[in-house]
Amino acid sequence: MNKSVGIIGMGSYLPERIVTNFDLEKIMDTNNDWIVERTGIERRRIAEKDIATSDLGAKAAEAALLDAGVKAEEIDLIITATLSPDMNFPSTACIIQEKIGAVNAAAFDLGAACSGFIYALTTAKAFILSGQAKTVLVIGAEVISKLLNWEDRKTAVIFADGAGAAVVSGVEEGGILSTALGADGTGGKFLYMPAGGTRMPATHETVDKKLHSVVMDGSEVFKFASRKMVEVSEEAIRRSGLTLNDIDYLVPHQANLRIINNAAKRMNIPMDRVYVNIQEYGNISAASVPIALDEAVKKGHIKKGDHILVVGFGAGLTWGAAIIQWNK
Ligand code: UT7
């Protein structure tokens, strides 16, 4: 059995439809300057009406399998991190399993919001190291646009749609050197969807009051994220036995350019060693880290042997970081 676990292939998929800040100006009281200055977002991808999270997740998964040179039948576990599942049940992971023909895979969803991909990566590593799985497909997929109140400018300009995936398996050396996860349920009230669960099932009233959509206290989440992103990164680095100086590249959750800039500055990582695509895609929650990682690798920013810090934070509140020595 391998002692190391790494990412052996990655893929991502974004819906084709581009919605710019100028498009949003036409449908709500907002403006391009505010959105760019406060968030860094210039445009985002929005899925068509007939597209659900599993459709994007399956496409990202197929791209990752191709990149890894692994057949769908070789996958023995699928973990899908999402806050926008196709439906309450069955899991989006099971729906993706059918779509890609991963007939030998167990499948489940993981709910850790924007930290979901890092939680799922940690889970995949644990399954492999304990001998319960050999090849795990980790997917972060979201269609958040369908969970937004398009009259709430505080959330509608931020979130968007897309998917990223990684094939995780035993490797000779390097790979996922360490991970660190955390949660603080007392902050759940800062980012949540009030209705649609067992606390507040769907009624005419919940629909009329638009309670089936994302509610966020942006400034509370901003304060938490700015603090936790650095803390959890430092913890993951400590667990890996490395130091900040050993980190070659930072791939952060794409929630807000100001949060990314502040964290990079506090960790002394120059911005040319930080991957940023928030201007193109906005915040895609659990999909944001795998999409960014896939793009950073494919654009040549990350090379074999590099030490990568990936870090995320989000609803829960949750946070997580991983140190990966790139294998490919
Ligand atoms: O991935 C999950 C984690 N989520 C996050 O990390 C989000 C973290 N938070 C943020 O990124 C920021 O808090 C936001 C970008 C969401 C908001 O930025 P902010 O600087 O915290 O703005 P604010 O909510 O304090 O609002 C400032 C002003 C308000 O106006 P008044 O009350 O000062 O007159 C808002 O009504 O900006 C107004 N505002 C807008 N104006 C134009 C809020 N949203 C908009 C908008 N367009 N879309």
Descriptive account of the structure:
By secondary structure, the protein is α/β, with parallel strands linked by helices. The chain has 2 domains: 4-173, Thiolase/Chalcone synthase (Peroxisomal Thiolase, Chain A, domain 1, 3-Layer(aba) Sandwich), CATH 3.40.47; 177-325, Peroxisomal Thiolase, Chain A, domain 1 (3-Layer(aba) Sandwich). The chain has helices spanning 21-25, 32-39, 53-68, 92-100, 116-129, 153-156, 204-208, 218-240, 257-266, 278-281, 288-298; strands spanning 4-13, 18-20, 43-45, 77-81, 106-110, 135-143, 161-171, 175-183, 191-192, 215-216, 249-252, 307-314, 318-325. A 5-stranded mixed β-sheet has the order 1-7-6-4-5, sandwiched between helices. A 4-stranded mixed β-sheet has the order 8-13-12-11, with helices on both faces. Strand 12 and strand 13 form a beta hairpin. Helix 3 crosses helix 4 and helix 8 (218-240) packs parallel to helix 9 (257-266). Bound molecules: oxa(dethia)-CoA (UT7).
**Bound ligand species:** oxa(dethia)-CoA
Number of helices: 11
Largest sheet: 5 strands, mixed
CATH superfamily of the largest domain: Thiolase/Chalcone synthase
> What Rg, in angstroms, do the CA atoms define?
19 Å
Task: Please give the CATH class of the largest domain.
Answer: Alpha Beta
How are the SSEs placed, and which strands pair?
Elements: E1 4-13, E2 18-20, H1 21-25, H2 32-39, E3 43-45, H3 53-68, E4 77-81, H4 92-100, E5 106-110, H5 116-129, E6 135-143, H6 153-156, E7 161-171, E8 175-183, E9 191-192, H7 204-208, E10 215-216, H8 218-240, E11 249-252, H9 257-266, H10 278-281, H11 288-298, E12 307-314, E13 318-325
Parallel strand pairs: 4-5, 4-6, 11-12
Antiparallel strand pairs: 1-7, 2-3, 6-7, 8-13, 9-10, 12-13
Helix pairs in contact: 3-4, 8-9
Bound molecules: oxa(dethia)-CoA.
